[in-house]
Design a protein that fits this description.
The complex is a heterodimer of chains A (209) and B (130).
Chain A lengths: L5 E3 L5 E3 L11 H27 L9 H4 L2 H26 L3 H31 L8 H34 L3 H33 L2
Antiparallel strand pairs in A: 1-2
Chain B lengths: L1 H6 L15 H23 L6 H22 L11 H30 L4 H10 L2
Helix pairs in contact in B: 2-3
The chains are: A mainly alpha (209), B mainly alpha (130).
Chain lengths: 209, 130
C-alpha cells in the first residue's frame, strides 16, 4: 500500500486519513453472508475431496456408470438452472419496486426448488431400493454425503423462500427485506455453482468407464 | 452501483450495497450456462468417441468456465464490489479448497500405490510365483 492509513502526531494523538471509509465494505450484512457462503464452500470442498478419494472404491458393488440415469440428472440440472434465472427476475422485480412481481417470482423459484428436491429424493429412494444405499460401498457413502448435503442446502433454501414470501407480503419492501432477498439470492446462486461441480465431477465423470 | 442507491431517492427502499441488476445480465448468464451445460451432457450421453482422459479434461474445463459465468452474471462478482473484500475472501477460500482437493487426491493416491497388496493381488502373486 502506497499511503499509510493512520498516522500519529507528535503529542501521540492519532490522525486518520481514511475519513471517506473507502476501505470499508458498503454493507456488512452482505459481506458477512458472503463469508458464510465461503465457509460453506470449504465444507463442499472437503466433501468433493472425499468423493475424489473414495469415488472409485465400489467394493464389488454398482458403479456410477451402472446407477446414474443421466436423463434424470439433465432434467434436474435444467430445473436448477431455470430456478436461478427466475430468482434473477425476482431481483429485477424488487429493484423496480414491484412487490407482487417479487413474490410471484420467489414462489416460482420455490416451486422449481421443490421439483429439484422431489427428483433427487426419487433418485435416492430408487438407489436405496435396489440395494445401492450409502452403506453399500465407499463410493456410495461419499456420493450420498456430497449430493445429500447439497440437497439439504436446497431444502433450507426453499424453507427460506417460503418465509421470505410471507415477510415481504406482510411488511412490504423494507430495507431489511431487500437485504434478505439479496442474501438469499447469493445463497441460491451459490447452490447452483456447487451443482455445476456435482453434475460434472460426480455424475458425468462417474458415468465414464 | 452504490452511487445509484445514494443519489436516486427512488431506490431508498433498497439496502445499501445491493448490486444493480439488469435483465440483459441475467439472460446473458442464462444462455451461456445452458450452452456450457448442454455440451458436456451431450458429449457424455451421446457417446462422442473422445478418449476418456481427454473427455475428463474437457468436462472439467467446461465446469470451470461455467463457474466463472455464474460468479460474474448471477453473483455479480467483480474486483470492486464491497471494496474488494469479497473478491479477497473468495481468492483465499479457493486457494484453501485447491490445497484440500489436490492434497487429498495426491496423498491418497500415493497411499494406495504403496499399500501392501490386498487379498486379490496376493492370490495373483502366489499363482504367478515360480
Amino acid at each position: 500500500m502506497a499511503e499509510p492509513i493512520a498516522l500519529t502526531r507528535e503529542d501521540g494523538a492519532p490522525v486518520f486519513l481514511d475519513t471517506q471509509g473507502r476501505h470499508h465494505p458498503e454493507n456488512g450484512s452482505l459481506l458477512g453472508f458472503w463469508i458464510y457462503l465461503l465457509s460453506d464452500l470449504m465444507i463442499f470442498g472437503c466433501l468433493f475431496a472425499t468423493f475424489g478419494v473414495l469415488g472409485r472404491n465400489f467394493a464389488a458393488g454398482p458403479s456410477g456408470a451402472d446407477l446414474f440415469d443421466l436423463k434424470l440428472v439433465a432434467v434436474n440440472t435444467a430445473v436448477l438452472l431455470v430456478s436461478s434465472i427466475t430468482y434473477g427476475f425476482a431481483m429485477i422485480a424488487m429493484q423496480a419496486r414491484n412487490k407482487r412481481g417479487l413474490i410471484a417470482w420467489l414462489i416460482v423459484t420455490g416451486l422449481l426448488g421443490a421439483t429439484f428436491l422431489a427428483i433427487e429424493l426419487y433418485e435416492f429412494h430408487h438407489f436405496i431400493h435396489i440395494g445401492a444405499g450409502p452403506q453399500r460401498s465407499a463410493f456410495l457413502s461419499s456420493f450420498f454425503a456430497l449430493v445429500g448435503t447439497h440437497g439439504l442446502h436446497v431444502f433450507f433454501g426453499v424453507v427460506w423462500l417460503i418465509v421470505l414470501c410471507l415477510q415481504v407480503n406482510k411488511h412490504g419492501l423494507t430495507r431489511a427485506n431487500t437485504r434478505r432477498v439479496a442474501c438469499l439470492s447469493m445463497f441460491w446462486h451459490f447452490l447452483d455453482v456447487v451443482w455445476i461441480g456435482v453434475f460434472t465431477f460426480v455424475y458425468l465423470m462417474g458415468s465414464l468407464r | 452501483m452504490s452511487d445509484h442507491a445514494h443519489h436516486d431517492h427512488d431506490d431508498d427502499f433498497l439496502e445499501t450495497g445491493i448490486p444493480h441488476v439488469s435483465k440483459k445480465e441475467y439472460l446473458t448468464g442464462f444462455v451461456l450456462s445452458v450452452i456450457l451445460t448442454a455440451i458436456p451432457f451431450a458429449l457424455v450421453m451421446g457417446g462422442s468417441g473422445v478418449a476418456t482422459p481427454l473427455l475428463m479434461v474437457i468436462l472439467l474445463a467446461f465446469a470451470a468456465v461455467q463457474v466463472v459465468v455464474h460468479m460474474v452474471y448471477f453473483l455479480h462478482m467483480n474486483a470492486k464490489s464491497e471494496g474488494g473484500w469479497n473478491a479477497l475472501a473468495l481468492i483465499f477460500t479457493v486457494v484453501l479448497v485447491v490445497i484440500v482437493l489436490s492434497g487429498s487426491l495426491w496423498v491418497m493416491h500415493h497411499l494406495n500405490t504403496n499399500m501392501m497388496p490386498g487379498a486379490h493381488e496376493m492370490q495373483e502373486i502366489i499363482k504367478n510365483a515360480p
